[in-house]
């Protein structure tokens, strides 16, 4: 056999052998080594299964949990995250699981949660997004790191705090008034409030952050919701990188198409602002969030400039977060008030005492102590986040554990909020009085026992905006109506990006106006 023929045979064989070795290293040797390393430190968990990890088990548990009817109770964790509930009970409060080949250390001990989220050494960066989440969020504030994050955070802080927040009040009130005008046709009838609040919160974030209306942003919201559904159903599907590069699934193709359409819609909004300045109709791009982003996009200073892609991603992030967060919070709060008429009446008396029959005003919103207690208890029972994911950027120690680089941390911050050891045997009951003396006293000064908006430097920038919008909407509803639960309501919380009611929340409205 000639030397050339030997070379022709040897090269492909060598490449195949090298690829096989790397495949076995990535999909067998490294997972087993990590498993053994953490087992030796007392961290157990479901065993690693070749290629798929624990994804098939998780998908089966979730399907089984959702197939069963649920009584009207607030112990929702076994339904919305049955795999975490099952494995915490079996393996302990911190355990190792597998997202395909990727090791994922699930932590639910408050001290470890606090240590990770408050880490100032940047040892726990955000995990690289999946292909679907990258289409949904891109390089927005929720996902970027380093100097980019610091720059965006300053923009967010300016847009959603202090005087800027106060100036948003009239737009929020106008949006709530529009919704309540429609509600006049539902007095004595059933109304589904989750959808009502979806429209309301979409209108509010459109007006306050982007200077538009829900109708103008309707297409963006629709496409973002479709992207969120695609991302959610992909969470526990195993993807092999080299196969994904050769073949794109229908979900990937659809998500790419949706992301491009969203980009086109946002660019139209940007051009509208630019044209107003060019035509002399405005002397600036505006002081709302979109105006600040467009200004940064045109900044001549390289340190402050924002790329077009980053601008689009930031808009997606705030459209989604600004709508989804308050939508869920309002809906679950109304459900709890409909069930607990005594707390509904206490909240109403407080609203009337502070505002009378007038619209809420910013200076007095902070006086709503009972409503704050109710909102906090709602957030405890029906948290905004399913969990927070970080990556271990380098070998690091947390608590007594030494963690290898390049594994994931799943911070199950909802678990402490449902922990009887922290809250007592009545942990699954709606008891706003837990927060009568504030969050610190209510949690016995344990910051990680209750952190619906996160803690540490990367806590939610829109927290004040979300709570203000919620208080304004609830105040205006309670001034006009009593709310009772419809017999048609079926309790079915599900996990999407946050906790949502699968079949909506149906209530009956009774007007407080004797002339209606």
What does this entry show, briefly?
With 516 residues, this protein is an alpha+beta fold. The chain has helices spanning 3-39, 55-67, 77-80, 82-91, 110-117, 131-136, 146-159, 162-183, 193-210, 214-234, 241-246, 250-278, 289-297, 308-339, 341-355, 362-365, 369-381, 420-423, 439-442, 463-480, and strands at residues 94-99, 102-107, 190-192, 388-391, 396-398, 401-403, 408-411, 481-485, 493-495, 499-501, 506-511.
Topology:
Blueprint: H1 3-39, H2 55-67, H3 77-80, H4 82-91, E1 94-99, E2 102-107, H5 110-117, H6 131-136, H7 146-159, H8 162-183, E3 190-192, H9 193-210, H10 214-234, H11 241-246, H12 250-278, H13 289-297, H14 308-339, H15 341-355, H16 362-365, H17 369-381, E4 388-391, E5 396-398, E6 401-403, E7 408-411, H18 420-423, H19 439-442, H20 463-480, E8 481-485, E9 493-495, E10 499-501, E11 506-511
Parallel strand pairs: 2-7
Antiparallel strand pairs: 1-2, 3-11, 4-7, 5-6, 8-11, 9-10
Account of the 3D structure:
This protein has 516 residues and is of the alpha+beta class. The protein contains 20 helices and eleven strands. The protein has helices spanning 3-39, 55-67, 77-80, 82-91, 110-117, 131-136, 146-159, 162-183, 193-210, 214-234, 241-246, 250-278, 289-297, 308-339, 341-355, 362-365, 369-381, 420-423, 439-442, 463-480, and strands spanning 94-99, 102-107, 190-192, 388-391, 396-398, 401-403, 408-411, 481-485, 493-495, 499-501, 506-511. The strands form four sheets. It has a four-stranded mixed sheet with strand order 1-2-7-4. Helix 9 (193-210) crosses helix 10 and helix 14 crosses helix 17. Belongs to the cytochrome P450 family. Heme binds at residue 460. This is Cytochrome P450 CYP749A22-like. It comes from Gossypium mustelinum.
């Amino acid at each position: 056999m000639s030397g050339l023929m030997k070379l022709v045979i040897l090269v492909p064989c060598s490449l195949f052998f090298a690829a096989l070795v790397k495949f076995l290293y990535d999909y067998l040797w490294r997972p087993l080594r990590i498993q053994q390393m953490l087992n030796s430190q007392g961290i157990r968990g479901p065993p690693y299964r070749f290629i798929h990890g624990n994804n098939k088990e998780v998908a089966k548990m979730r399907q089984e949990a959702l197939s069963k009817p649920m009584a009207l109770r607030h112990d929702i964790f076994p339904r919305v995250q049955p795999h975490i509930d099952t494995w915490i009970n079996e393996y302990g409060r911190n355990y190792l699981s597998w997202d395909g080949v990727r090791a994922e250390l699930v932590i639910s001990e408050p001290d470890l949660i606090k240590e990770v989220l408050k880490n100032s050494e940047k040892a726990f960066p955000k995990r690289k997004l999946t292909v679907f989440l990258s289409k949904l969020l891109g390089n927005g504030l929720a996902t970027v790191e380093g100097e980019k994050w610091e720059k965006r955070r300053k923009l967010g802080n300016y847009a959603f705090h202090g005087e800027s927040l106060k100036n948003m009040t009239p737009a929020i009130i106008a949006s709530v008034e529009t919704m309540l005008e429609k509600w006049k046709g539902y007095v004595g009838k059933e109304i589904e409030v989750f959808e009502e609040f979806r429209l309301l919160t979409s209108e509010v974030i459109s007006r306050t952050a982007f200077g538009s209306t829900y109708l103008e942003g309707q297409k963006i919201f629709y496409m973002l919701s479709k992207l969120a559904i695609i991302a959610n159903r992909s969470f526990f599907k195993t993807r092999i990188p080299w196969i994904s590069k050769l073949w794109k699934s229908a979900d990937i193709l659809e998500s790419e198409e949706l992301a491009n359409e969203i980009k086109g819609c946002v660019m139209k909004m940007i051009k509208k602002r630019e044209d107003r300045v060019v035509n002399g109709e405005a002397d600036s791009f505006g002081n709302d969030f979109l105006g600040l982003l467009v200004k940064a996009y045109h900044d001549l200073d390289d340190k402050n400039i924002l790329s077009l892609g980053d601008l689009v991603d930031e808009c997606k992030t705030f459209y989604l977060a600004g709508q989804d967060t308050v939508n869920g919070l309002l809906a679950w709060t109304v459900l709890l008030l409909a069930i607990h008429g005594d707390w509904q009446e206490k909240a109403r008396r407080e609203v009337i005492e502070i505002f009378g029959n007038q619209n809420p005003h910013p200076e007095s919103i902070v006086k709503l102590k009972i409503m704050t207690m109710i909102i906090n208890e709602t957030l405890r029972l029906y948290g905004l986040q399913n969990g927070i994911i970080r990556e271990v950027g380098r070998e690091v120690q947390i608590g007594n554990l030494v963690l290898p680089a390049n594994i994931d941390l799943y911070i199950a911050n909802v678990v402490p909020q449902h922990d009887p050891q922290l809250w007592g045997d009545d942990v699954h009951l709606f008891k706003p009085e837990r927060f009568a003396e504030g969050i610190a006293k209510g949690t016995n000064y344990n910051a990680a026992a209750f952190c619906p908006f996160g803690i540490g430097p990367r806590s939610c920038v829109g927290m004040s905006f979300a709570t203000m919008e919620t208080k304004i909407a609830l105040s205006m509803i309670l001034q006009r109506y009593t709310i009772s639960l419809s017999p048609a309501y079926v309790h079915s919380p599900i996990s999407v990006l946050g906790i949502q009611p699968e079949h909506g929340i149906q209530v009956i409205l009774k007007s407080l106006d004797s002339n209606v």
